[in-house]
Amino acid sequence: MQKTTSSISNNISFTRGVPALEALPTTLFSECLQAVLAGPDGKTVLQYGHNGGYVPLKQLLAEQYHVDVDQVLIGNGSLHLQDMLTAQLVQTGDVVFTEQPSYDRAIKTFRRRGAKVIGIPLALDGVDITALEEALARYTPRFMYIVPDFQNPAGVTTSREKRQALAQLAEKHGFYLVEDVPYRTLRYSGKTLPLLRELNPERTITVSSYSKLISPGIRVGYLIGPRDIVKPLIALAEDTTLAPVLPTQAAVLEFHKRGYFERNLESLKQLYAPRLQAMISAIKTYLPGIDFAEPEGGFFVSITLPQESNYQHLLQRAKEQGLLLTDGNGFFADHLNAQANQAHTGDRFVRLPFCALTPQEIEAGMQRLAELVRA
Amino acid sequence: MQKTTSSISNNISFTRGVPALEALPTTLFSECLQAVLAGPDGKTVLQYGHNGGYVPLKQLLAEQYHVDVDQVLIGNGSLHLQDMLTAQLVQTGDVVFTEQPSYDRAIKTFRRRGAKVIGIPLALDGVDITALEEALARYTPRFMYIVPDFQNPAGVTTSREKRQALAQLAEKHGFYLVEDVPYRTLRYSGKTLPLLRELNPERTITVSSYSKLISPGIRVGYLIGPRDIVKPLIALAEDTTLAPVLPTQAAVLEFHKRGYFERNLESLKQLYAPRLQAMISAIKTYLPGIDFAEPEGGFFVSITLPQESNYQHLLQRAKEQGLLLTDGNGFFADHLNAQANQAHTGDRFVRLPFCALTPQEIEAGMQRLAELVRA
């Protein structure tokens, strides 16, 4: 056995997927803000802006995604863009599909805007296509929300074959794919797979953000989609928030221009890759025999505890032992199905964000968790 | 007659109420951002934030408004706060009162969230209290939206007596007063009147922003209200946008701490006061005999053209003459009432924002307008 948990007296938090504090580029970002405000666009970024974001950053994103600039909307973080997109696409009672489990705040957002949210079981290589086809026989969703790379919460990456199947089903049944790809460039190993947008651009709306790649506090997220979606969405964004937050958007562009983005991304990978390895090792050591997706990037690993484990009142018991967990049920859109399907149930589902913890904290946390769930 | 309009070849825009470009404090704000990012909260403001805004700025606002810090929510501009407030308070079909005319984007926001918006005629000293009482005999609104100081669009300041009446009616009939006060501190002459909040704090929700006082591009707006309103609204804000934009909020606090806020406010008054005077003089010179509120501050003067003037297709004809106007109808919530009431009708209503124009441009613009509406 390793050192006891008492050697780490602080709480260990396996709750939110936040960047490591030490990874936030205060000096580089400050330089960029200064350059923007002293530069030719200094006045522009302090004035009211239009057009769905800081135009030169929209241009950069248009180049990166091989789309036209009028297909890009930059907003105050991707969650708010998803909120407005849902307001635009969904009438009360419309159906939205998510992977099951899926990002809890996205599920909540779709519901708040009146959607009936149906979860399609997620396997270790992406959503269960047979289950999706069965669901499509009963419902045509307005859209399906997918996190194809290093999924939040499960860490799953959708396989190439399943991406192809999703692109085809969207076409066949006439629904949109909303792909949320904030972790995509944080790949620590393996090879990048195509975006859903690359497989079916007319049916895909891509949302992403700089929260995991530069800073969450700057709230710069973006959305790329077909013109007939993006144009009215820009109008709705302007009606809702009047204008974008320009200084931080312009500083993100400067961050790219100066080559800081690549340099920062490399540092993040150096910092996070060993943490992911520590998490995978700790699961295998302390909770042997559990099936889980071993991600090649991103922020999250998740496990489903075995039926026979002691998961009753786990959150409360963990908290008393200085281990903070998120309620697994929030990631399951469809509680009833989740109960019926023995493979996944929220009570036994534990998300394990690893980026903001040292390998030592990760190991200590998993040791605590293993003790708590011992039958 | 003065110089002809041909001496100014550019378009003159009487459309949006934007600050003068030369008034945007690029250097001072950049200093503040640098100080924040180099300071003890540098990492904090780049990380995810909670609690409805940057806590030290919430503390400053709580002191300024004599409330507790948990009564303050800072968001990405006041329009979005009003959008979320409406989502929280209004069910589809609920009634909201506005002054008539009122801020067009606010009317649109309330409607988008399902409200039935009813405009109460605005006199030169605030809303018509008799008309308000008549409307209250028929409806109890969820809230009444009021811009008590230098109203957008009319430039009207609500008198002390009418503020008192509003506070009492809100109490008697059980509705909220949403007072929007972004221009309040931009007073160029005369004496400050009490906030509605000071007269009835339990029934008043105050919204304001730094858009007119520092910069619109930073999107820092705030809301002050009773705890039972603000607490769930903070939860809704967190669900909607996940986290606030922290660097600009922290820089606003630094702007205050360094004494830049007072200094900047004084410069704004020096710049804008002569522009207001130029607008008032130009109206009296070129459109003599029109009744209008002569504001003592803010961004707007508005006029209602006489019945006998030539106001048909005014926007289009003005545009052809290089004069950009906003459609007056957008400021009238209730078109039918507006038609019936000869005193106010959107077709004849012209808003005249003056801050971003030089006195010369203002005079030339008003001269063009007078020529266009000559019967």
TrEMBL record, chains A, B:
Keyword Transferase: yes
Keyword Transmembrane belongs to the record: no
Molecular function terms, GO-annotated: pyridoxal phosphate binding; transaminase activity
Cofactors that this protein relies on: pyridoxal 5'-phosphate
Ranges for domain Aminotransferase class I/classII large: 38-369
Keywords annotated in UniProt: Aminotransferase, Pyridoxal phosphate, Transferase
Gene Ontology biological process: alpha-amino acid metabolic process
CDD domains (UniProt xref): AAT_like (cd00609)
InterPro entries: Aminotransferase_I/II_large (IPR004839), Class-I_PLP-dep_aminotransf (IPR050859), PyrdxlP-dep_Trfase (IPR015424), PyrdxlP-dep_Trfase_major (IPR015421), PyrdxlP-dep_Trfase_small (IPR015422)
Superkingdom, taxonomy of origin: Bacteria
Protein name as annotated: Putative transcriptional regulator, GntR family
Organism annotation: Ktedonobacter racemifer DSM 44963
